[in-house]
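Bug #2210: token dump truncated for Amidohydrolase?
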Amino acid sequence: MTVAYTNLFSQFRHELHRFPEVSGQEVETQKRIKAFVSQFNPVAISEVGGTGLLLQYGTNAEGPVTLIRADIDALPMQEVNTFDYRSQTEGVSHKCGHDGHTAILARLASLLVENPVSTGRVYLLFQPAEETGKGAEAVLNDPLFATVCPDRAFALHNLPGFKLGTIVCKPGSFTSSVLSIIVSFTGKVSHSAEPEKGLNPAYVMADFMVRTKQIQNPNPQSDGFALITPVYTTMGEKSYGISAGYGEVHLTLRTRNAKRMIALTAQLLTLLSTLSAESGIAIQTSYTEAFVANENDTEAFIQIRQSAQKLGYDFVDKQEPFKWGEDFGLFTQHYPGAMFGIGNGEDSPALHNDDYDFNDKLIEPAAQLFLELIMSHHN
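Reproduced locally. Full output below:
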């Protein structure tokens, strides 16, 4: 492949980086992707999941069906990098590398033109809204996607802190189950000189926060791993003559799998019920940004390892799941498949840091690994 052709995909990635869009608002991103990948002659290109795109290669009704997924959304973060393709959108930037994941999938599209599948069909999914956990659900609920029915589904994520190009994977849970919980505490306001005439939620909220620290098990090597992170709290008003009557606590929960998450949330709800009964404070809970653990199918994991070794890539067998969430887990709940990681460089800033950037050197090796996974299954 010529240097100019290699640069084509880096330049595409840089264009996406300049014009990032947050989850569910990837309207211009969708247009840019569609315009770029159309040159690689998919059998069909369809809008899916709102602002996503689905490309089809191969037309055989019989034979295997493979889905390869990349995410396309950016984060509501200000970029501090000063390179020439820095974000042009105030307060939004690609600090998770989804611009790179998109470029990898675009390169894979070009490889499928050069290496057409002889059996079955291959679908390339450019998925929106991964960061909020809403995109996978939107795609899976789209009537168009009901016709796909993959028997293998693969995805990747770049990994800062790992040697450039190293493939990282494990069978079973690859990423954690993540769930954010919003707890509201409703009491009764009163004059701050007469707090006994009201019902201030402050001490119940404080007790709850302390008790969550006692409940958690932050050891990622443990099967009982349960990380509870306070992310936001609010109470009352900045009016010093009023004793507060309402407050909220927002927490993010992380466990190794869905079963452990169910047990953890049940434990928290029991605690809240007890606190409400003891204090008279009305307590309500709601949930947001749910990510199901990526459960890597054993055969799909073996296929990734064999394909990586065939291409001469370094391979790391991860011993415990990553603590972050990824909504590709919803696909692995429905279809056999796996997610793997690829090293973004040992000196790379971490994901979701304001100085992070995707390493363009990953585009070609990652696309080649996806191609090998496809060819080993279809030809």
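Output looks complete on our side. The chain has two domains: 3-173+293-378, 177-291. Marking as cannot-reproduce; reopen if the truncation happens again.
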